Amino acid sequence: MLQAARTMEKAGFEITLLPVDKYGLIDPDEVAKNIRKDTILVSIMHANGEIGTIQPIAEIAKKIKEAGVLFHTDAVASTGNIPVNLKEMGVDALSLAGDQFYGPKGSGALWIRKGLRLIPLMDGGVQEGGRRPGTENVPAIVGLGRAAELAKSDMHPRMRKLSYLRDRLIKGILTTIDHTILTGHPSQRLPHHASFCIEFIEGEAMLMLLNSQGIAASSGSACTSRALKASHVLIAMGLPHEVAQGSLLFAMGVSNTEDDVDYALEKLPPIVNRLRQMSPLYAKFIKEQRR
Amino acid sequence: MPIYNQKVMDHFMNPRNVGEISNPDGVGEVGNPICGDMMTFYIKVKDNHLDDVKFQTFGCGAAIAVSSMVSEMAKGKTLEEALTITPSLVAKELEGLPKNKYHCSNLGAQALRKAIRDYAKKKGVKIEGLEEKGEEDEEGKEN
């Protein structure tokens, strides 16, 4: 959405970017305060894929409704992983993607409230109610629907299992590796999501060494991004650039087990230690006992 | 994650000359945390030769591989020879670096050069190849 908002800005619209707290949470009162007479749309992510934090969408929606403004939420990271109830959330539009819950890659959906009319992004045929031209990708649509059904059918046991694994991983990493920060909210977060900043080292190097041990993880470090810029999410949460560079995230899935978590907990500390032994920042910290 | 070639992977997985030299004859630091890579090179000089070269690097796989390669290329060379090591020579020895890593991570030669300059300054000696045009500007940018 950030990029879409920037495009609107170029077209002459004014945008207001709201701050987040250290957990990446938006304050609903802050949303209400920033709504102006000419505000036409508010968009807030349901859950963030980089830090796992889940926003209080229903609470924010109430504030927005009072002002009579349209509310969109990007629920790509959350749909299929936690309950997404349109009625309870009270949004006017919601986007989701199938690849987040084992659906076909490239499939996605935009749900909009009845009566809401959109200008199509592309011009052409009248498919999808005139909102998006081009022959529908039927296999992707069917696959997305089936994946959603399956995700819903075992959502609660899956959430219980994954949040247990997540908490085991978080606790293990925070107790075995010093100078490590959990990024995102400690409890108000996606059940399968554990994200950290490991100080004094860089994310890509960690990923490469983890990969050599058969562990797949990801990072929001500048070096892992194509733009070679640190994650704007971590910077918005107030983390310094060198700390954001040590971003490391694990997103678990249905096939992960307790053994997988324990394996990662066994392999990660020596990897961190190895990179810290190479790091001029760590050497400086040890010498001076300060950052 | 970028795809690195075998040579880069070898220098990343088994980096040569990692560490710090106690009482070094020269130290060179480059980089900043915003772009993501920081390197410190330490040198020990004996009879105008680089008797020992060690490095510490905070950065991605390419940055670590580059540092390792530079240390290997420099060790045993005369100071003048070491100054002929350029980022493109390092990339060539590594049999190529991904395009977007070429500039940001390829700071090793610069760090080595800074360590040699530090040595020259401390000893008050002139080294051929050190005082090139534009070099002072480059250092000005660093500080």
Plain-language structure description:
The complex is a heterodimer of chains A (about 290) and B (about 140). Chain A has helices spanning about 1-10, 30-35, 55-65, 85-90, 125-130, 140-155, 155-175, 205-210, 230-235, 240-245, 260-280, 280-290; strands spanning about 40-45, 70-75, 95, 110, 180, 195-200, 245-250. With about 290 residues, chain A is of the alpha/beta class. Chain B is globular. Chain B starts with 5 loop residues before the first helix and ends with a helix. In chain B, about 45% of the residues are buried. Residues about 135-143 of chain B have low confidence and may be disordered. The interface between A and B is medium-sized, with 28 and 29 residues.
Helix content of chain A: 40-55%
Low-pLDDT runs of chain B: 136-143
Q: Specify the CATH class of chain B.
A: Alpha Beta
N-to-C terminal Cα separation of chain B, in Å? 31 Å
The CATH architecture of chain B can be named as Alpha-Beta Complex
- Number of domain units of chain B: 1
Throw out a few tags for this protein.
heterodimer, A: 291 residues, alpha/beta, four-stranded mixed sheet, 12 helices, 7 strands, 42% helix, globular, B: 143 residues, alpha+beta, Sufe protein. Chain: A, 19% strand, disordered C terminus
Task: Describe the SSE topology.
The complex is a heterodimer of chains A (291) and B (143).
Chain A: H1 2-10, H2 28-34, E1 41-43, H3 57-67, E2 70-74, H4 86-89, E3 93-97, E4 108-112, H5 127-130, H6 138-153, H7 155-176, E5 180-182, E6 193-198, H8 203-212, H9 232-236, H10 241-244, E7 247-251, H11 258-278, H12 280-288
Parallel strand pairs in A: 1-2, 2-3
Antiparallel strand pairs in A: 3-4, 5-6, 6-7
Helix pairs in contact in A: 2-3, 7-11, 8-11
Chain B: H1 6-13, E1 26-32, E2 37-46, E3 49-58, H2 61-74, H3 79-82, H4 87-93, H5 108-123, H6 135-142
